[in-house]
Amino acid sequence: MKKLFPLVTADIALFTLKEDKLRALIIRRENQPAQGEWALPGGILQPEADTSLDDTARRVLRSKTGVDTLYLEQVMTASSPDRDPRGWSLSVLYYALLPSDLVPAVAGISVEAISWFDPEATDPQLAFDHGMLLQRALTTLRKKVRDGALPLHLLPEQFTLTDVQHAYEAVLGSRIDKGAFRRKIKDEPSLLAIDGELLRGPQRPAQIYRTADDFKF
Amino acid sequence: MKKLFPLVTADIALFTLKEDKLRALIIRRENQPAQGEWALPGGILQPEADTSLDDTARRVLRSKTGVDTLYLEQVMTASSPDRDPRGWSLSVLYYALLPSDLVPAVAGISVEAISWFDPEATDPQLAFDHGMLLQRALTTLRKKVRDGALPLHLLPEQFTLTDVQHAYEAVLGSRIDKGAFRRKIKDEPSLLAIDGELLRGPQRPAQIYRTADDFKF
DNA sequence: TCAATAGTGTCTCTTAGACAATATTGA
DNA sequence: TCAATATTGTCTAAGAGACACTATTGA
Asked: Which residues lie near nucleic chain C, judged by CB under 7 A?
C-alpha cells in the first residue's frame, strides 16, 4: 500500500571550531534504519509539539547537545521516495553555529557516540544523503561569509581580531592577508572593543572585542 | 483531534518580463480556503505520482501554465500550524523563470483568472503568507543576479545585449551604466554572438546573441 | 541631414592583495 | 636583547561608476 503522507524530518549540520578548524557534529545511529552508521543529528516533526520546523530543529539540538539559542538557518529541503528506506520522506536541512567554548559541554552531555567531522573529509561516509546535505550546508555557510558576514557565532563571548580572522579562514578554507582583513572589518559596527581589556602573552597584547548586541549574522 | 501529519505543498513564484518589467504570476483561488483571493500557484504533494517536491512544482506549473522545462529553483520552506486554516502545513517555495515570449501562451491556457503582479506592489494582498513568500523569492533571485548570474531564462531564444541589460535591470530594480554592463559581460562564455544576425531598425543595427548550450544560471 | 540606438573609450575612485614597517609585551 | 604576535602603512593592479565619444542605420 502506498503512503499518503511523507515522513517529515529536520536535519542539522552543527558547525563549530576545534583548534581553529571547522568541524561538524555527527552522531552514530543507535536505531534502524542505518543502525551503526554516522549521520547528521535529526529528528521527526511532531505536529502536536512543534510550532514550526525550526522548532523541530531546536528541539533536536537541545536533546542531542544540551545547548539552546544557537544560531540556526535553513539551507534547503530534500525530498524523494528513496532517500530513506522507510518511504517517501522530506527533510528540511539547517545549519547551526556553536561557540567554540561550548564544544566540551556538547561532547559531555550526549549519551550517543558523537564525533566532530571535518566537512572536507570523505571518511566516514555518512548515512542516507547526509554527505550531500553536509556539503550543501557548508556551501551555504561559505556563501554567507564570502558575502561579508562575520561568523562571530563560532567564537566565545570575548575574542581578539586574530580570532575573528581565524574563524573567517576556517569557514572559507583559505587564507587571507592580515592587513586586508583588518581593513575589511575596520568599520564593522558588530565588533565592539572592550575598553582596557587586553589579551596578554609573550608578545604585544591584543585588544579584546565582543559582539554588538544588535549583531545580525 | 490533532493532526499527525502536515499538509505538504509546493508553491511557485513564476517570474517573467512584461515590457521589460518584472512580473510574477498570481491566480485567483476558485476553492476554499481563501476562495476568491489572489495567491501564488501551488499544489499538494502526491506521493504516488511525484518523485520529489521539484516534481510537484513542475506538475503544478504544467497544469496552470501549459509550459514545461522552466528554470526552477528552491527558495525556502515555510511551516507552521497557522499559515493554512486546514491545519499544520509545510510549503516548499520555488521560483521559476519564464521566457518573455511565452507569456501570451500562459495567459491563454489557464481556465482560472490570472494576473501578472508587480512584486514590489502592495495591492492586491495575497492569501496565506504568500506575500512574504513572494518577497523571499524575489530576494533570492536578486541575490543570484547580483552575484553575477545573468537571467537569460527570462529572454527569448534570440536577444541583443541591450535586452540582457534590461532583464538584468528589471530583476534588480535599478539602472546600470551601459559601458560598465558591457564590460562585465564582455568575456561571458554563456553569450554567443550569432554570426551575421542583426536586429535592424531606424538606428545602428544590434548584434543578436543566443544562450550557450552549457549555460548554467 | 537628423533622430535613435549600438558600441567603445577614458577618467577617477574604491578596494583587494602583497608585502613591509613599526609597536609592545614576557622571558 | 630576542622571539612572537599586534597593528599600521604603502604600493600596485583590477574593477565599478560616470560620462563622453564614435558608429550605423532608417526616414
From this structure: A 176-180, 183-184, 200-205; B 160-162, 178-179, 182, 201-207
Would you list the domain boundaries of chain A? Answer: 7-146, 152-211
Q: Do B77 and A53 touch (CB under 8 A)?
A: yes
* DSSP run (H or E) holding A172: helix A161-172
Residue A200 carries which side chain, given as an amino acid letter?
R
SS3 A91: strand
Read off the pLDDT of residues B103-128 as tens digits, 9 standing for 90 and up: 988 877 777 899 999 999 999 999 99
Give the 3-state secondary structure of residue A70. coil
Does B46 reach chain A within 8 Å, measured CB to CB?
no
Q: Can you say whether the dihedral through the CA atoms of A59, A60, A66, A72 is positive or negative?
A: negative
Which bases on strand D have an atom closer than 7 Å to a protein beta carbon?
3-10, 16-20, 23-27
3-state per-residue secondary structure call for B79-148: EECCCCCCCCEEEEEEEEECCHHHHHHHHHHCCCCEEEECCCCCCCCECCCHHHHHHHHHHHHHHHHHCC
CATH number of A7-146: 3.40.50.300, 3.20.20.100, 3.90.79.10, 3.50.50.60? 3.90.79.10
Measured CA to C1', the nucleotide nearest B182 is C7
**Type and span of the H or E element at B14:** strand B7-18
Q: Using DSSP, state whether B207 is helix, strand or coil.
A: strand
Contact: B45, A6; criterion CB under 8 Å: yes
Percent of chain A with pLDDT over 70: 99
* Chain-chain contact of B4 with A47 (C-beta, under 8 angstroms): yes
Would you state the pLDDT for residue B42?
96
Give the relative orientation of helices B161-172 and B178-185 as an angle to the nearest 10 degrees: 110
pTM: 0.95
Place of cell 520529489: B52
For domain B152-211, say whether CATH 1.10.10.2840 is its number.
Answer: no
CB proximity under 8 Å: B 89-108 to A: 90, 92
Which of B2, B47, B88 is nearest residue A4 as measured by Cβ atoms? B47
